[in-house]
Amino acid sequence: MTATTREEAPIAVEGGGLEVRVREIGGDLTVGFFRLPQGTDFTEALKGLPDDMCPCPHWGYLLKGRLLMRTRDGEQVYEEGQAFYWGPGHVPVALADTEYVDFSPSAEFHRVVEHVRGGAG
């Protein structure tokens, strides 16, 4: 069995108050610890991925804040205290300072992180 904390997970993406820490925690599962300042919008960072959206599924829990999730089918707002599943094809936008933890298939998640690193700026 494997465990980690936010502080133990290495930073994968940061800048402008944004912080994404990730660690593989066993098998094909990666945990992501996200801190998004209000106004963070991943629209530009996800351009070039299929449908210009994140193609990776995520299961998690919103610790703090409010997050708008844009999908092909519309938009949904997630709030502090909610557990969630985000299927492939989504773009997050922080409506308030937001923190969440999610769990994702490792290979897909790492491809998205590498894309965002190259597209962040």
UniProtKB/TrEMBL annotation:
<dbReference type="InterPro" id="IPR011051">
    <property type="entry name" value="RmlC_Cupin_sf"/>
</dbReference>
<protein>
    <recommendedName>
        <fullName>Cupin domain-containing protein</fullName>
    </recommendedName>
</protein>
